[in-house]
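dumping this here before i forget
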Amino acid sequence: MTAFRFEAIDAAGKSKRGVLDGDSARSVRSQLRAQGLVPMTVATAASHAGGASAKGAKASGGFGRKLSQREQALLTRQLASLLVAGLPLDEALAVLTDQAERDYLRSLLAAIRGEVLGGHSFANALAQHPKDFPDIYRALVSAGEHTGKLGLVLSRLADYIEQRNALKQKIVLAFTYPAVVTVVAFGIVTFLLSYVVPQVVNVFASTKQQLPFLTVLMMALSGFVRQWWWAALIALIVIVYGVRSILAQRGPRLSFDRWILTAPLAGKLVRGYNTVRFASTLGILIAAGVPILRALQAAGETLSNRAMRTLVDDAIVRVREGTALSRALGNTKTFPPVLVHLIRSGEATGDVTTMLDRAAAGEASELERRTMFLTSLMEPLLILAMGGTVLVIVLAVMLPIIELNNLVH
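structure:
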């Protein structure tokens, strides 16, 4: 049996769309006619999803996933609940397909169900959609299928995705206010330099009066902003593009990632964020029964910092040679000591998974605290910087007025 997506017209002339199972497109058309529908298009769900994906990629310029993080978490949670309740995988996918609100999600689920009905494993079916389901997602699904605990693995995976999204949202929201203040300050300063300063200062320039140095400097800066703003914008774009091109290379990116780990404030944030991802992923993989070496490799691939990923690769070599996991990670001198101690305790008690979960939760709380501290420190500094800049501009405008007033008296 294969899943087919169809579009048909009923007796009232209304268009209907849906998914039907059948041995061939002809049998699906027969089913539609038996229901009093006139079939317009019938195609396998897989090909329909591929076409929708290509169309969406073309419309969006090829950027971004089509399945949002929220949809991925909700889909994983619902599927886990249905499987734990004892529903077969194909029936669970059929239920989710019928409940899907977005056309792309409905096509995606129908395509996956069609692959499953065709005899492929669930992990192989997900592998046909790498933009929607990353490697670590498919690795966990494959582990759940091999151990017969797919429902439990998906449940833990849903917890992981939801916690990761919540943590990311908190970090983004924490930095939103400083970003808004920076943009507003830049806009105000640009307006003052391009419009207010020339209108006021040019009055004194026409009097042939010798202007203060600060006013002359501000007039030069104002002229540059008005005449060469496009050059500054092009230079900024070139610099950003150049930096991104350089960091795209393996050597410079590795050096930058090593440097960022030693940065006073950013280093702790980067190390904490990657530690949370590493510990959470490793805990899920070990709980799913994945061998320790394969679990370490998959968990290391989730790290965004390549320097830490290299250290995990070195730890894998030590573990393969017989070194304990806690000692191998401790030798890297990068992961927090709390994580190493908790793993050592888990190795002693035989419950590494629980200790990894505790380490991930603790590091997430510490990361949130550090983020709030950093943003609370940035906010007054940005306000002071904005006030100081506006004060300099006001002084540049007021100094000629004060001098002119003194001459009159």
